[in-house]
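Recap from last week: sequence in, structure out.
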Amino acid sequence: MANAIDQTRRMLSLVTYLRERPGARVTDVARAFGVTEAELIGDLNVLPLCGTSFRGGDLLDIDTDGERIWWHNVDDVAQPLRLAADEATALLVAARAVANLPGLRDSDRQALLRATAKLETAAGEVAAASSQLSVTFESEGSVFADVDRAIVERRRLWIRYYSPARDALTEREVDPIRLFAVGHTYFEGWCRLSEDRRTFRLDRVAEIKLLDEPSDPPRVEPRDLSLGLVQPAGDDPEVVIEVGPGGRWVAEYYPYDSADELPDGGLRISLRTPDPGSLRRLALRLGRDGRIVSPADLADRAREAAVLALAAYGE
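Predicted structure tokens:
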């Protein structure tokens, strides 16, 4: 079962593996690391964003034609690393913050502390300056740690989860499968409430608890996320919503096909959903900050619901 920390370990090992095997076959590398070819391609899409400088220099020039993998600047990246003062400070602050993350595996924490100590020695006076800075993780970081711990220890989770489509909190028990990031950070798990695989966004988890009950999700094939998290069916109805500046949050909470800027600072959002009727609640929440443009029948139903709601307040 893959999670974000396992992916980081795998990508670090992947750098060494590819350095020693120029032109390695995608199928062979995926088999060696025990991942699908789609997961490997996902790693390869991230590696060119990594390098030896925070300023964007010395990035890994790695690409693939789908069959073989090529690393074009092995010798350049292999040069001894030299950190500027701000780079060393950023690394030290980040390392100390992660080392204090709740739920981090002890072996990972100890390895990180050893690496931090070496970096402090090399950084000299910069290390003393960095000790005056600190970073604390908000609730999403705590949720990440609990989910990661549940995956490692094979324990079930209890969560209170916010669903924007229903504008409601639900309580459910979940057998976590993996952590991943596609724009936001998510975890995938087998939901015992719906008895099906579900994806949960970490910043929508209102409360989380590790249970003593063992996690036992059914064996399922990992979803191919190369085309994005949400992949609507071609025949799903399209809905167009216009929101004002106060409704721009909709683009953060709902997956969409496009979001075009409007002159007043709002957005014209186009999205697909198998259940357009579920967006009537969204229209009511938006009030003056938004409206459904199409389809026309959904816009009419949303207006009728708003009229009935106002009438209820009048009574």
